[in-house]
Amino acid sequence: MNRLRKTALALVAVIALVGSSFAGQVTVGGNIPLINSIIGIGVLSLDFGSSGDDVTIATFIVNNNSPGYSITWQFENKGAFSNGTSEITIEEILLSDGNNTGTLGTGCNELPADNLGITTETDSYTWNAAVKGDTEQTSATINYQIEMTADWANSAEAMAGLYTETITYTITAEL
Amino acid sequence: MALNRIHLPVYLCFMYLAVSDVFALSPPDDLINNIQCQGVFGLNFTQAGSREQIAYFVINSNSATGFDVTFKFANFAKFINGNNEIPMTALVLNKVSGTLGEGLTEPNEIDVLDKLNGGDEYIWNPGTEPSSETVNFIIDLNADWDDPLGKMAGFYFETITVTISVGL
Fold it and tell me: Is the Cβ–Cβ distance between B98 and B55 less than 8 Å?
């Protein structure tokens, strides 16, 4: 009986030692919120007394920290400065990084070098700055400045008045 | 007399059992040696972190030989989100509250990042000869990180596995 008792106690001791290790796991962390913004500033003092050649008509400042994002510009007058029924057609619209201000995210596509091709049939252009799973952005775009320039012909014979084009811009993030 | 002779073996047998019980092992106290942990999920990664509590641990132990606590960092002391990461620039272990067994040494500004030295594991050994129990002794890990300005959006995390073992 005593031997049984000793065996049992030894067994308890062994179990106690075997079970003497205790583990747990924690996950610690936090969130970096999505930044996805674009600010646009239009020029209201364009000189239509002479032809325009790569004249800045608007400037945009972009901030984004998602893997993918795109920007769409939609031209209300389909690429024309209008005043009632009078129009001054925009012959070419280009995008550039202007004064090279700010930082374009690593991995992003370059701005298009060609005319955006805004016509009476195509009133918008989308720049896929970064595409998740493809040309993915791996560091944030910070205060990246995009300059929009335009060409137009001499409009000295056009009717007097304020000629305007309205550009609606949208930035879309892809997480 | 004859009766005594008959009962003598029985008497001796009882004596043996009584004496042998004195030398038998008495049941030990139940071993208590456990650790509970809690991580912080709401770290503010919109700015640099300075001595931010990232996790705390509650220890109870009555091991006669003390205890060891092993911290294993799945991401080598970095908060990660896919391929993006926010490295900890400092990581220290401190006492918060509770009672550490007498004879053991409390953690005080232990530079865990330095101890890791690029590895993923650090073992805190407060000592091996406690003379009293450790009761609800709370320690915490505090971390620094640089301003994550320009980091990609998303949830950044580190996973810490903690193991307590009896001291050897």
Answer: no
